[in-house]
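Subject: Sanity check before I submit

Could someone independently write out the C-alpha cells for this chain? I want to compare against mine line by line before I put it in a report. The sequence has 190 residues.
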Amino acid sequence: MSMEKLRGELAAFIAGIYEGEKKVLVFGEGDVGAPVMLVGEAPGEQETLMGRPFVGKAGKNLDEFLAGAGMERSALYVTNVVKFRPTKTSAAGRTVNRPPTQEEVKLFVPWLRREIELVDPKCVVTLGNVPLKALTDKGRVIGEAHGRFMELEKRLLFPMYHPASVIYNPALKAVYRDDLAVFAHWYKNL
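---
Independent answer below. Compare away.
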C-alpha cells in the first residue's frame, strides 16, 4: 500500500464518521523510508491552516532543537496521532485547541500504526503523553519515560516532551536539550 492510498482511505473514513462536519485532515510529511518518525499529539490552528504538521510555535521550537542537534527535518517523517485539530470554544467565544479525547485517539491509532508500517522507521520518537500512551498502552507518562530508548514491536521508541511544553514550562528546556542530545548521539551513529 502507498501513503497516498492510506491517506485517501483515512479521508473517506473520517468523512463517513463526521458526516456533515468539515474536518481538515493534516497528514504526516517527510521522507517515507526515513529512519526516524516523530509523532505528536494533533494539529493546531497553524497546522490546519497550512495543512502541515508542526508549523506553529511548537514546530518552530522543534526545528530549533533539531538544528541544535545537527538533525534536518527533511530527513525525518513527522506526523500526529490525531489528524484533525481538536477544538473547543473558550469563555471569550473563540475556537481554541484542546487535548484530543480518548475516543479520538483510539479512532486514529490503527491508522497511525499503518502509517508507521509504511514509513518503517528504525525509531519512533513520541512527543508528549498522547503519542506515548497511544503507542504503548502501558499507562506510561512522559515525566517518567522521557529520554530513554524502549522497544516498540520491531523498532525503537524514544519518548520526549512535546516541543510546546517548553513554551509553557521554560524549565523543561534543559531537559529537552539533554534528551535530544541522547537521541542525536544514537542518530549520528546510524
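---
OP: Matches mine. For the report I'm noting this point. The first strand starts at residue 29 and ends at 30.
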